[in-house]
Design brief:
By secondary structure, the chain is α/β, with parallel strands linked by helices. Helices cover 40% and strands 18% of the residues. The relative contact order is 0.13.
């Protein structure tokens, strides 16, 4: 049966985080005349995720069904692709298991899609919910943790600016995905032993390249819970390394094939410039200040990205 809207929740070992999200969805407002569903995609968890969903299903309102499915191929890209396949709606709104939406999130997403039919995807306004306060200068890199506060007016992401929303709180039109995204994209998301990421930006780059618009919808507000562990050096340095090592893929999606050698050279030169300026500006702070060290890791990994991806065989994937 066709529905108006699908909320998709990709999760890995989310048993302790899912309850609050499901309660937030249970209490959505102004949805009396909306037909919608919730799909939890268990991305190969080894905790009690399945049991938690079963307990909720036993007492869940039939007006918006709660469905569980298991995706054994680990990686956020595989979980989102499975959600697209399972969804009964043309509109799929993705919430991570640590994203907690405001009561009007579902209806705000649905209304925005109707108002902007050329929007192939649109992101939420995302506020941080810190377990502990971050360093004073953390705002320099906060956006990389899916914090998106771009004001209270809708905003279209222009391709020339090379900025796109994160997957947290993202709504995608199924047709835009099917028209644009390869079956086997290069980036698949962080998995055990690899922090390689930016799979969401690769997908959105393909959607934008196909002519669909990408928007920011401030009325879709969510809070992203960020535990203290994600503010430690042991997490952040590999995290920024993963973003940097992925960058060659996301940079090249929009570039015409004949221009890619020139674009590669231009990016290498620009990354070199950034590395040199960062060293000259911060000197010893690169080893003593966490935010400065994260920025340096990002610049270095971005420079290394094309060589790393080539060496690891990522460009051997079959696009079809």
């Amino acid at each position: 049966m066709y529905t108006d809207f699908t909320v998709a929740i990709p999760t890995y070992n989310g048993a302790k985080r899912l309850s609050e999200l499901l309660e937030r969805l249970r209490n959505q407002t102004h949805i009396e005349h909306l037909s919608w569903e919730i799909i939890v995609v268990d991305n190969n968890s080894n905790d009690d995720t399945a049991k938690v969903i079963k307990l909720y299903q036993d007492n869940w309102p039939s007006s918006h069904p709660l469905t569980y499915c298991f995706e054994s191929q680990q990686g956020a890209a595989y979980a989102r692709k499975r959600a697209i396949q399972e969804a009964k709606s043309e509109l799929i709104g993705f919430l991570d298991d640590d994203n907690y939406p405001e009561p009007n999130w579902v209806i705000s997403a649905y209304n925005f899609a109707k108002k902007y039919p050329q929007a192939g995807a649109f992101g939420s306004q995302i506020h941080p919910d810190w377990e502990i306060e971050p360093p004073e200068n953390f705002q320099r890199v906060a956006a990389f943790l899916a914090i998106t506060e771009r004001g209270n007016l809708p905003l279209k992401y222009e391709p020339a600016k090379r900025i796109l929303p994160p997957s947290a709180g993202l709504v995608v039109r199924r047709q835009a995905w099917l028209d644009s995204v390869p079956n086997n994209p290069i980036l698949t998301g962080r998995v055990t032993g690899s922090m390689l990421t930016s799979e969401d930006l690769e997908v959105l780059s393909y959607i934008q390249k196909s002519g669909w618009e990408i928007w920011y919808n401030p009325e879709m507000e969510i809070y992203h819970r960020i535990p203290r562990s994600r503010l430690k050096k042991e997490y952040l340095i590999p995290f920024f390394r993963g973003i940097g090592l992925s960058r060659h893929v996301t940079r090249m999606v929009m570039v015409n094939p004949w221009m890619k050698p020139l674009a590669l050279l231009a990016y290498l030169l620009n990354d070199t410039r950034k590395i040199i300026l960062h060293i000259l500006r911060y000197r010893t702070k690169i080893t003593t200040d966490l935010v400065t060290a994260c920025e340096m890791e990002l610049f270095l990994s971005s420079f290394i990205s094309p060589f790393y991806l080539w060496k690891k065989g990522f460009f051997n994937k079959n696009y079809n």
